[in-house]
Write a structure and sequence with these properties.
2 copies of one chain form a homodimer.
Chain A (H helix, E strand, L loop, with lengths): L3 E3 H6 L14 H11 L5 H28 L10 H10 L2 H19 L6 E3 L5 E8 L2 E5 L8 H14 L3 E6 L5 H9 L5 E3 L2 H10 L9 E3 L4 H10 L4 E2 L7 E6 L5 H12 L6 E6 L2 H15 L5 H11 L1 E4 L3 H11 L3 E5 L3 H5 L7 E4 L5 H6 L25 E8 L2 H17 L3 H12 L1
Chain lengths: 437, 437
């Protein structure tokens, strides 16, 4: 059922980036927004309304939006310690071991990341950069059909490694026990029942119950994404997540059953997920397509998979491996899986990709749960300018300027002259006061 | 004329952060927007209109907005090589030397910044992070009353050190020669005549003349800031700049004339600039206030300075140095100048500041032009979560996942179990295919 494309037709369809996703909303979202907010109210405007009401009315607004949008009456916005503890206890020991193994590998990986603390004395005195943790971080954990405790681990642990002092979590009402258990494993006490744009607003502005944070991370639906974009500047954000995407480059050495299973795994995320195979090998293209048909029938989320594979997935036949790599690099996928004989060679041609998976031992599902690097990676081509979530997202730099007296005196006349050129005479005067001394 | 505050009254006025600056527009901006776009059109909506028209009509829209908003007919959007060359030649040799000294120190400073390239073999196989430069960067250089060639150097050079392949500049029509000369010093060939939101739109979406970039950096007016926020996601941005701010902490060892000159230099930037002195020493407070009155009369931008000092500046008397540091840390100033006997001690109490200037030899004007670190620093309290412009702004990370076969096999059963918990049966199947092998 998966379609096969030549390069040109792929570039006009599945490989075409829509960089304006926030300007054009899906029809069903426009309709559901108008149903709730009135005819003519765009999702953009609806999010403005939610942000403003939470800023002005705090917890009361959270409760009202939760009732209107989620259809749930919440009495306590904060989840009690007992509920978190009970969720933790309810997990089977074997599942708990899996969560803990995942958590420990995420921790070990991020602990090795170097921080940009440095000083130089080569420019006269001491110049450099000092890195400090962000004080308060809010993590958004979506609810929905498939609860993702893994996303909680993948965002909270890098923040903890960075040394963030206070980490809070917002998640829609009635969270799955696995999410609360993951919070318990990370020793997070502050979990709040708020979803959507109202959760983002609460973390950006603060309410009586939900503290204002300095940075918000985590993906959600389009309301969450729009809200994050709008509060950016008031708080930091790690990025604006779009639908998830995987690109596999395979040569004749690839195992077609494995490649097919990796594409199917990607396609099951949601209706907009994208799973694309690039290969110069027509045999691989054929056998992977056949394997997809074989395996699909056995999967529980087959309807979702069929839709996303048909609309956003495909197999692209490329002239050679090098041109497959060039297409991938231009696309800038969230995940790039190199099911090829020499993954190092192909990786050498790639600049733009969130995560690069070398060879079939490093299949993407291991990256989703167990490998160690955060699975929160840049989507929608944003790998051209942004990075997977990592320790650097939870620190900031202060420039350190500590010049010695000789260098200061030496640089003062040119500083005065530069300031004059910019008509900033007060700047020039400040420099001249030092020269006169 | 500068006012003196106690801590409490300062916290209610000049030290109070308005984190919602993008939701509330100044009255004069609302009026000028309505005059151009029609009654009821907010700056936010006006920027939407500009973005959409440039996205749809490219160069033609640039020319039309430039005519409407800047009142200028442009024939060529691209500045010719001759014009850049002539601007460079028109500079005096001594000013050229100043520009080149500044450029060389910016380059030397940023060349020493370590990049987060690393690998570990402790987690089974090879895991790590690979850093690559962003391919195309657009730098916005504002026009206006005081041309800032220094800002061009401070943004272009870190990008060049990072290895960015293509750097373009957009600046409003009739740029000062000093800006074009600075472009020539950086060997930038692509300078385009476009200002405001239309320039941001052109760099985000691309036009026939102006190439689409991957990231836009540089400050501008509120239209520019709003446009950057809206195109974020389509391209990267380095932050949303607000008015510039300096905080000075002084003890009894400070030179009152120097402190006064530093505050005056800061206040001359624009009507919204903020210059605040924190000191536990009443004598210093008095003498600095007197020095400000003395020095102000001699300065050409005295009207601007008086307005900004009165509205957004002041002297705050604190119980001791430590509490001055705590106030500064909570405020998170763009620039923090430590005119104290032991700057290292005070700096140890600070987590949130864009640039920390140690002692009176490292006065802020040197940081503006000559010291080396980029003078583009986080404003409006965003130092709580963001950093001065630096080499990291022009690179991105790819996570590298190259597990060995044994580790891959070992991690597959827990990955399958984790996936089952998340109801992602396709993920579990992909893991199980590896286990069966």
């Amino acid at each position: 059922m998966i379609k096969t494309y030549d390069v040109k037709s792929a570039q006009e369809t599945i490989l075409k980036r829509n960089y304006n996703h926030l300007l054009e909303y899906p029809e069903n979202l426009i309709k559901s927004t108008e149903k709730l907010f009135g005819i003519g109210v765009s999702p953009d405007k609806a999010v403005d309304i939610i942000l403003r009401s939470v800023r002005e009315n705090g917890d009361r607004a959270i409760a009202e939006w939760t009732k209107l949008l989620d259809g749930i009456n919440i009495t306590d916005i904060r989840i009690s310690a007992e509920l978190i503890e009970n969720a933790y206890r309810s997990l089977s020991p074997s599942l708990l071991d899996v969560f803990k193994l995942s958590a420990s590998r995420i921790k070990l990986f991020h602990e090795q990341q170097p921080l940009p603390n440095w000083e130089t004395t080569t420019l006269g005195g001491i110049l450099g950069q000092r890195t400090t943790p962000i004080e308060r971080v809010g993590v958004y954990v979506p609810g929905g059909t498939a609860p993702l405790p893994s996303s909680l681990l993948m965002s909270v642990i890098p923040a903890q490694v960075a040394g963030v002092n206070q980490i809070i979590i917002c998640t829609p009402p009635n969270p799955d026990k696995s999410i609360l258990a993951a919070a318990a494993i990370c020793n997070i006490k502050d979990v709040f029942l708020a979803g959507g744009a109202q959760a983002v607003a609460a973390m950006a502005y603060g309410t009586k119950t939900i503290p204002k944070v300095d940075k918000i991370v985590g993906a959600g639906n389009l309301y969450v994404t729009l809200a994050k974009q709008k509060v950016y500047g008031t708080v930091g954000i790690e990025g604006l997540a779009g639908p998830t995407e995987t690109m596999v480059i395979a040569d004749k050495t690839a195992n077609p059953a494995w490649v097919a299973s990796d594409l199917l795994a990607q396609a099951e995320h949601d209706y907009l997920a994208s799973a694309i195979l690039l290969t110069p090998d027509a045999d691989i293209a054929r056998t992977v397509a056949a394997e997809i048909d074989n395996q699909l029938a056995k999967l529980s989320r087959s309807e979702m998979i069929e839709t996303s594979l048909q609309n956003r997935g495909g197999i692209v036949l490329t002239p050679d491996l090098r041109s497959a790599a060039m297409l991938a690099d231009d696309y800038g996928p969230e995940h790039l899986c190199l099911s090829v004989e020499k993954p190092e060679e192909v990786a050498g041609w790639i600049n733009n990709a969130g995560g690069i998976f070398f060879g079939e031992n490093s299949y993407e599902v291991l990256g989703d749960y167990m490998a160690g690097p955060s699975h929160i990676m840049p989507t929608g081509g944003t790998a051209r300018f942004s990075s997977p979530l990592n320790v650097l997202d939870f620190v900031k730099i202060s420039s350190v300027i500590s010049l010695d007296p000789e260098t200061s005196l030496e640089l003062s006349p040119p500083a005065a002259k530069f300031a004059q050129t910019e008509s900033l005479t007060g700047h020039a005067a400040a420099a001249n006061y030092r020269i006169k001394q």
